[in-house]
Amino acid sequence: MKRLLIIVVVVLVVIMGFVALRGPSPEKQPPVLQGNSPPTVQAIEKPSPPEQPRKVVAIVNGVSLHEDEIFNLKALAEYDETQRPHFVQAYVTRAIDMELLIQEARKHNIPETREYKKLARRYSSMRTHRQTEGIVRLYESRNQELVDFKNPELVPQSLVDPIVQERSTADMPLENIEAHVRLQLAKERHAIAYGQWVLAHLLQYPIAINGRRIDEDSIRTAVDRNMGPVRPPADRLSPLWRFVIEAAGFDPAVVTRDLNVEQMQKLRTAILDSELSVGETVYSLREMALFALLQEARVAYYMINRPQGPFLMLKKYALLESAVRDGVGSSAADEAEVDSYVRYGPSGDTQPARDVSNEQQILIGAFLKWYAKIDQMEFDDATIQAYYEENKGRMPADLTEVERRIDIEFKLRVAKTKAVRIVLMRELHERASIETPAN
To answer: Which one-letter DSSP state was computed for residue 205?
Structure first.
């Protein structure tokens, strides 16, 4: 028995020594990195830091206004420190006023009013315009040739040297002269290249208004007139405006600034009911910001003083057709960039203060029009003449009598609406509960 016990002990010692020589068993091997994969380690979960509460800058009738709703905090941090407190106070005060107007508008069910629906249609056309403009700008930025023409450093030295030598003086260093020349040449070369690029796109598609196709010669002439170095004077209808008027069923010869209000309204309606086709795509002129801005009683004045209007329309929608064909604006990244352009414009989200949303702008604007009864405002001849005598030095001298009356009526409506708003805001503040926490 004793001998058997000794044998067992010896065997166990041998086995343990063998295991020690082999090292740990495969099941106990330390984790090995596979490529860039981290080892599987049972981490101790740390509680995430508590989320910082949003800073409340005002409470209006129980509704909290947050700092990040009113300001772009990143841009605000870079604002001039000495002016920042005044800037913040001014925009918090403005935000309080906006909230009071929004709350009052909802009390009166403004979204059901004619004023709201009319303003909503106008904002819709403006938003569509900004979206279209954003896609077109994105499409233009993707054309490397146009980008290169804009770069002063890429202007050939052979074009720069002769002009620098001609302009060299003892008063200015040559490098400064060259820098100025390069900027000028880059601008000129880009303008020529851009004009040729736009023309190529305009000629790619059949373009028509109410089924009447615009011929190639007219398009080439329009590009020369509107993108060339010499712009046409704003004293008569441009050829494209004449084409739009004819396509709407009117004789351009009768479209003068002496048209009465009724005649101008008929012309305006006919134009807004027209359609533009670019390739296979059809657009309503009524939905375009350019035509939505036509003043009901100043159509001819608007047309004559904006000779580029129809050309800008053709250019934008021809480039949009090409952009959509090439897939620009369809990716998630493109959509985000276009949305930023719609919301903030070309400069992007860089302003320290934010505006209210489009929906809130419509609500406030419609409420003020409804409350002030703008559409019902009428002014007699004596009021019109008194305003003219007091302000004629600041009014355009070339207005006809009809145009001048419309201009004065518009300004009187604006002034009266401002006065009504001042009284309204005073009343809203008096009966409101407003807190401005000191945090």
So the answer is: S
